[in-house]
Amino acid sequence: MEGTPSAAAVLKAVTLTHVRYRRGDALGHFLAWVSLMPVFISLGGFVSHFLFRRELQGLCFFLGLLLSQALNELIKSSIQQSRPSSMCAALEVCDSHGWPSSHSQYMFFFATYFSLLCLLNGIGVSSPRSRRLLALLPWPSAFLTLYSRVYLGYHTIPQVTAGATLGLVLGAGWFCIVNTMLVDYFPAVEESAIGRFLYIKDSSHVPNVLKFEYDNARLARKKIAKD
């Protein structure tokens, strides 16, 4: 109808992204940022981890996420299920596939692996209560991301449910592979030429990494002061 704005005209993208939400929709604006959590985790979390920590467990964690996303793309291209028809034109995603949701898969893989890491490996925290609290940390973001993809019109409920289920299964499976099979090769990687060159390490045998590093940093400072 003449004078009526098109669906695309009432949608606005988050700055520097192509995640769109309805103009004036505060909840949609918030959820648009929430749906970018995988980007924040990958660029902010894992890049920072490699620059400052370089733990083999963290590197395997990131490798698992990459493999999970590669599998997601393979499944999408095989199934070729369309995104919600009511919004795909406005969102400019009609040429991409929606089953399973890659955002949901990423976040549920991340939440599952992170929780198991906290509960079973401790990630350097010795207190059982602290481990349990840390294990709960990623789940609100995971469920919010799942909801955001439906609310913003990028996916149907079955698509995000499939992504979440696949992420959960793959996260648990990859955690088992890393910590029952690949962990045996950690010492060899640590002592390899590239491992020594890049300062790649494994601290999973240290009960409380934070205390260990704090104590050693203090000892090093005291030694320098004496010298």
Written overview of the protein:
The chain has 227 residues and is mainly α. It is built from eleven helices and two strands, in the order ββααααααααααα. It has a two-stranded antiparallel ribbon. A hairpin with a 6-residue loop joins strand 1 and strand 2. Helix 5 packs antiparallel against helix 6 (128-136) and helix 5 (102-121) runs antiparallel to helix 7.
Write the layout of secondary structure elements.
Layout: E1 11-13, E2 20-22, H1 26-34, H2 37-52, H3 56-79, H4 88-91, H5 102-121, H6 128-136, H7 139-151, H8 157-180, H9 186-191, H10 193-198, H11 209-226
Antiparallel strand pairs: 1-2
Helix pairs in contact: 1-7, 3-5, 3-8, 5-6, 5-7, 5-8, 7-8
